[in-house]
Amino acid sequence: VFRLTGLEEAETDGFLAARGYAQIEPSFVMQADIHPIEEETEGVVIETRPTEAWIGGAAAAYGGAKDDPELLADILARIRRPAAYATLVLDDRPVGWGIGVVERGWLGLYDIVVATDLRGLGLGRQIVRTLME
Questions:
Q1: Tens-digit pLDDT profile for residues 8-57
Q2: Residue 85: which residues within 8 A CB-CB, separation 6 or more?
Q3: Three-state secondary-structure class, residue 9
Q4: Biggest distance spanned by C-alpha atoms of the chain
Q5: CA–CA separation, 72 and 52 (whole Å)
């Protein structure tokens, strides 16, 4: 699986297509300068490797085609850059997950997901803020 961000060489998409790779879903890229964050981001635990609990929780929250923990673990094992795996915990319950990957001076935020029963409350922002810090 490749996430094309627009930072790659222009011919990368054609290079992958010629080797049999197909587009599954688009990557939406936004960029912003990172400034000190003044809001509290309590409750987010950062780890440098994905634990079984992180993989299981994130996969369950994704639902659909991404809900297979074994497939997710296989994808994560292929990340070769420094990464941070965030888990948002509320009342001792893991409720949100996200990945931050550093490459060439950029921080990529991937797979920010919150438990289905808690979506729409701004919890994903806590994950994003913590990864950016």
A1: 888 998 999 999 998 887 777 777 776 666 665 679 999 999 999 999 99
A2: 46, 47, 48, 49, 50, 51, 54, 97, 98, 99
A3: coil
A4: 49
A5: 11
Residues 6+ apart with CB under 8 A from 107: 34, 100, 101, 131, 132
Those residues with Cβ within 8 angstroms of residue 77's Cβ, 6 or more apart along the chain or in another chain: none
Model's pTM, two decimal places? 0.78
Coil, helix or strand for 51? coil
Is residue 2 very low, low, confident or very high in pLDDT (cuts 50, 70, 90)?
confident
Percent helix, strand, coil in the chain, to 5, is 30, 25, 45
The predicted structure's pLDDT at residue 38: 62
d(Cα 18, Cα 80) in Å, to the nearest integer?
23
